[in-house]
Specification:
This protein is an alpha+beta fold. The chain has 17 helices and 23 strands. A hairpin with an 8-residue loop joins strand 14 and strand 15. It starts with 33 loop residues before the first helix and ends in a 5-residue tail after the last strand. The structure holds adenosine-5'-diphosphate.
C-alpha cells in the first residue's frame, strides 16, 4: 500500500458503489412447501372425517343388521301368529261342534247340517267324524249316503292323543283319503260319560297355510316354511308342491328347536341366516335367507361409504394440490418479479388472480419504479459530479475507511488506475515517496493513511511517480483530508494528487536564472575587486621581488658560507610563502567567480566566515577601515559555500561603501552560535539606512547608489532563506547600520 490503495477488495468502478450481494446466492430455503402444508392440513382434516364416517357407517351397518334381524324375526312371528290364529279358529269351532246336542244324541243328520253351516265361516275347511274304531261316520266333503273310508293310522294316533289328554290336538300333515292331498287340521275328542264317542276333525288342505305365507310380502330371497311337530313341511313359500307333507331337510329340522336367530348351511352348502318362531301347538315357522344376501345391503352400505369417504379424501387432496398450484403459481410470479428487480429490470406486473400476491407485485412494481427514478437521478448527480471532478487539473479521489478508492476522477486515475488487484500491486511499484532529506516514506506515512488516522496532510507532500508505459515519470504533490460521518468518527478521506513537474521545472529555471544572476552580480563585483586584488596581490609579489633581490645579492656577494646559506634558505622559504599566498588569493577569486557550484557541504561556521571575510576585506583594506573580526565560535552548518561567501562579501562591501564619507570607519564582524543556530552580524559606522527604502530593503532593484543595481540584498535574502535562515537590518546604536543573518546549526545527531 503506497498511497492508500488497498488491492485486496475487488476494485469497484469509480462512481459505482458496491451493491449488496444478490439474494439467492447460497440461500437454502427450509421447511415445508405450501403444497405440502396444504396437503397436511387437508389430511389433518380428512383423517378425523374418515374415522367419523367409518364410525357412522359402522353404526349404520349395525343398525341395518339389527333392522334386518328384526324384520326376519318379525316375519317368522307374524306368520306363526297367523298360523296360530287359523288353527285356533279350527280348534274353537271344533270344540263348539263337539258339544252339539245333536251329536251327543247321535242325530248325525242334524249334526251334519250344523257342521255345514259352521264351515261357511271357515272357507276350505270340512268336518270329518270318526268312530273310535277308526271308521268315518260322517264327512262333509262327501254326499250323505256315500260310502265312507276308514281313517288312516296317522289320524288315529292323533285321536288317541286327543282322547288321552282330553284336549284338542293339531294334526301333523297327512295325506287325506277323501281330500286327495296333504291335509292338516284340529282334532277334537268327543266324550260321552267320560268315554270316547267320536273323534271330530276340522280338516283343511295344507295349501290354505301356503296362502298365509304368500299373502305376506317378504323380501326376495327369503324362504318361509311352516313345519309340523314331526318335522314335515306344512307349507313352503318356495317349491311348496314338491315339499308339502315331506320331511324337512336336516337344516330346517335343526332350527325348529331354536326359537330365534340361527345360522345354518343349506343343502347346497351355502350359509343361511334363519329366524324361527315356535308355537306351543308344536309347530314352528322358519324364515331363511342366504347369509350373503342378508348382509349384502350392509356390505353395500359399507362399500358405498368407504368409496364416498375415499372419494372425498381424494377430492380434498386434489383440491389442496390445485389450491397449492393457485398459490405457488402467483408466488413464483412474485419471486420472478423480485429476481428481475435484483437485475434492475421492472418486475413485469401481471395479475395472478390472488389479491395478496397482486398487491405485493404492485407494491414491488411501485418500488422498482421509485428505485429506478432514484437511480437515474443518482446517476445524473454522479455524472455531474464526475464532470466537475474531471475538469479539475487535480487528481481527486474518495477513499473509504479501509483505504479503498470509492471514486476518483480522470486525473487521479492517471496515477492510480482502476485495475485488477494483481496489476495494482505492480502499479504500486511505480510509486516512490521521498521526503525532503531523501529518505523513503513508509506506506503508513502516505497522505491518505495519515488522513484516515485523523492527521490532515495539507498542502501535501511531494512524492515521485516513477512512471510506466502510459504515464511518464513525474513529481507530484499528494494531499489528503479526512472526512467524518454524522457520529463524528472518520469515515474516509479525500486524496488529491497534483502533477507538480512543471512547477518544479519553473522552480529549477528560476534557480538557474538566480544562479546566473548571482554569477552576474559576482562578475560585476569583479571590477571593484580588481583594484583591491591588485593591491592584495601586490604585497606578496613585492615581497617575492624583495626576497629574490636579497637572494641575488647573497649569491652575487661571492662564496656561500654557512651563514649566507642559512640566510639564502630563509629568503627562499619566505619567497615560497609569499608565492603561495598570492596563489591562494587567486584560487579564492577563481572559486568565487566559478559558475554552477551548487552542492551542500557540512563546514565549520567559523572557518567559512573567516574565509569569506578575508576575501571581502581584501577590497576594504585600502579604505582606512578599522576591522574587528570576531568569528571563533563553535558549530557546523550545511551550506553552499560559495553562496554564503557571496552574502558575506555583499554585506561587507555595502558596509564599506556606506562608510566612504564617514569620519569614523569601524567595521565589527561577529559570529555568535547558540544551541541550534549561528548568527553573523556586520556592524558599520556608515550613513545608516535611507528612510525611503528602509521597508523595501531586500526587494530587487532597490538602490540609492548612482552605479547601484540594487540586487545585492535581494540575492542575500534569497540565499539565506534557501538555507532556512533569515536576514535582517537595524540601525547601529552608535550610528550606522547592523546587518544580521542566522542559519540553522547541524545538531550532534
Ligand atoms: P546596491 O549596493 O547595488 O545599491 P544593494 O541591494 O546591495 O544594492 O543595496 C541596496 C541599497 O541598500 C543600497 O543602495 C543602500 O542604499 C542600502 N544599503 C545597503 N547596505 C547599507 C549599509 N550598510 N548602510 C546604509 N545603507 C545600506
Amino acid at each position: 500500500m503506497n498511497i492508500g490503495w488497498t488491492p485486496r477488495a475487488s476494485s469497484p468502478h469509480p462512481g459505482t458503489a458496491a451493491g449488496p450481494a444478490p439474494v439467492g446466492g447460497g440461500f437454502a430455503p427450509s421447511g415445508l412447501s405450501i403444497r405440502q402444508r396444504l396437503v397436511l392440513i387437508v389430511l389433518m382434516a380428512a383423517i378425523p372425517m374418515v374415522l367419523l364416517s367409518v364410525d357412522i357407517v359402522w353404526r349404520l351397518a349395525e343398525r341395518e343388521r339389527d333392522n334386518n334381524t328384526q324384520a326376519i324375526l318379525y316375519a317368522a312371528h307374524s306368520v306363526l301368529s297367523a298360523v296360530e290364529a287359523q288353527l285356533g279358529n279350527y280348534a274353537a269351532v271344533g270344540q263348539a261342534l263337539g258339544e252339539s246336542p245333536a251329536l251327543q244324541s247321535d242325530d248325525l243328520a242334524a249334526f251334519r247340517g250344523e257342521a255345514e253351516r259352521a264351515m261357511i265361516g271357515l272357507p276350505g275347511a270340512w268336518v270329518t267324524l270318526v268312530a273310535p274304531d277308526g271308521q268315518q261316520v260322517m264327512n262333509t266333503l262327501l254326499a250323505p249316503g256315500d260310502p265312507l273310508p276308514r281313517a288312516p293310522e296317522s289320524v288315529m294316533s292323533g285321536a288317541r292323543l286327543a282322547f288321552a289328554e282330553k284336549r284338542v290336538v293339531i294334526t301333523d300333515v297327512v295325506k287325506g283319503p277323501v281330500a286327495g292331498g296333504p291335509v292338516v287340521g284340529a282334532g277334537v275328542p268327543v266324550l260321552r260319560d267320560g268315554r270316547p264317542a267320536y273323534y271330530l276333525v276340522i280338516g283343511v288342505l295344507a295349501d290354505t297355510f301356503r296362502e298365509l305365507l304368500n299373502t305376506r310380502q317378504m323380501p326376495q330371497g327369503w324362504i318361509a316354511a311352516i313345519i309340523d311337530r314331526d318335522g314335515n313341511f306344512v307349507a313352503r313359500s318356495l317349491d311348496h308342491e314338491r315339499w308339502v307333507g315331506r320331511p324337512a331337510s336336516p337344516g330346517w329340522r335343526a332350527i325348529m328347536h331354536v326359537d330365534g336367530m340361527a345360522e345354518v348351511i343349506s343343502v347346497e352348502g351355502r350359509p343361511l341366516i334363519t329366524a324361527t318362531s315356535r308355537s306351543s301347538l308344536g309347530w314352528a315357522v322358519g324364515v331363511a335367507t342366504e347369509k350373503a344376501g342378508f348382509e349384502a345391503p350392509i356390505r353395500r352400505t359399507m362399500l358405498t361409504a368407504a368409496l364416498l369417504t375415499s372419494a372425498v379424501a381424494l377430492m380434498s387432496m386434489l383440491l389442496a394440490g390445485f389450491a397449492a398450484r393457485r398459490i405457488t403459481g402467483p408466488i413464483a410470479a412474485l419471486e420472478a418479479g423480485v429476481v428481475r428487480l435484483e437485475r434492475g429490470e421492472p418486475p413485469d406486473v401481471r395479475t395472478t388472480g390472488v389479491p395478496e400476491v397482486d398487491h405485493a407485485l404492485f407494491a414491488l412494481d411501485t418500488a422498482a419504479r421509485t428505485i429506478a427514478a432514484r437511480e437515474r437521478s443518482l446517476r445524473e448527480n454522479e455524472s455531474r459530479i464526475t464532470a466537475i471532478l474531471d475538469v479539475l487539473p487535480v487528481g481527486v479521489a474518495l477513499v473509504d475507511r479501509d483505504g479503498r478508492i470509492i471514486v476518483g476522477n480522470g486525473n487521479y486515475r492517471r496515477f492510480v488506475p482502476q485495475v485488477v488487484p494483481s496489476r495494482d500491486e505492480m502499479r504500486q511499484e511505480l510509486w516512490e515517496g521521498w521526503d525532503a532529506n531523501g529518505r523513503r516514506i513508509p506506506p503508513e506515512a502516505f497522505p491518505s493513511a495519515r488522513a484516515l488516522r485523523g492527521d490532515p496532510v495539507w498542502p501535501g507532500v511531494e512524492l515521485f511517480f516513477r512512471g510506466d508505459d502510459t504515464q511518464p515519470a513525474t513529481w507530484t504533490r499528494v494531499a489528503a483530508l479526512p472526512f467524518r460521518g454524522e457520529s463524528g468518527e472518520i469515515s474516509g478521506a479525500v486524496q488529491m494528487i497534483v502533477d507538480i513537474d512543471q512547477e518544479r521545472r519553473a522552480e529549477e529555471e528560476r534557480r538557474t536564472l538566480q544562479a546566473e544572476l548571482l554569477h552576474l552580480s559576482r562578475v560585476s563585483d569583479m571590477g571593484q575587486m580588481a583594484a583591491a586584488l591588485a593591491h592584495e596581490l601586490n604585497q606578496p609579489l613585492t615581497a617575492v621581488a624583495v626576497y629574490i633581490g636579497g637572494c641575488q645579492k647573497l649569491v652575487g656577494a661571492g662564496a656561500l658560507d654557512e651563514a649566507r646559506l642559512d640566510k639564502l634558505g630563509e629568503l627562499l622559504r619566505s619567497t615560497s610563502e609569499q608565492a603561495l599566498r598570492a596563489g591562494e588569493i587567486i584560487r579564492q577569486l577563481r572559486e568565487f567567480v566559478r559558475k554552477g557550484e551548487n552542492e551542500l557541504r557540512v563546514v565549520s561556521a567559523a572557518g567559512l566566515m573567516r574565509e569569506s571575510c578575508t576575501l571581502a576585506l581584501a577590497a576594504a583594506r585600502h579604505k582606512d577601515v578599522v576591522v574587528r573580526l570576531d568569528v571563533d565560535a563553535p558549530g557546523e552548518i550545511l551550506v553552499n559555500k560559495v553562496q554564503i561567501q557571496q552574502v558575506v562579501f555583499n554585506l561587507v562591501r555595502n558596509a564599506v561603501e556606506a562608510m566612504e564619507t564617514s569620519e569614523r570607519k569601524e567595521l565589527a564582524i561577529r559570529l555568535v552560535t547558540g544551541r541550534d543556530r549561528m548568527e553573523l552580524s556586520i556592524a558599520d559606522t556608515g550613513s545608516g539606512l535611507a528612510p525611503e527604502i528602509a521597508d523595501r530593503l531586500f526587494m530587487p532593484f532597490v538602490s540609492t547608489k548612482t552605479q547601484g543595481m540594487g540586487i545585492g540584498l535581494s540575492v542575500c535574502r534569497n540565499i539565506i532563506e534557501a538555507h532556512h535562515g533569515r536576514i535582517s537590518a537595524e540601525p547601529n546604536p552608535g550610528g550606522g547600520t547592523v546587518f544580521k543573518f542566522w542559519l540553522p546549526l547541524l545538531r550532534e545527531e
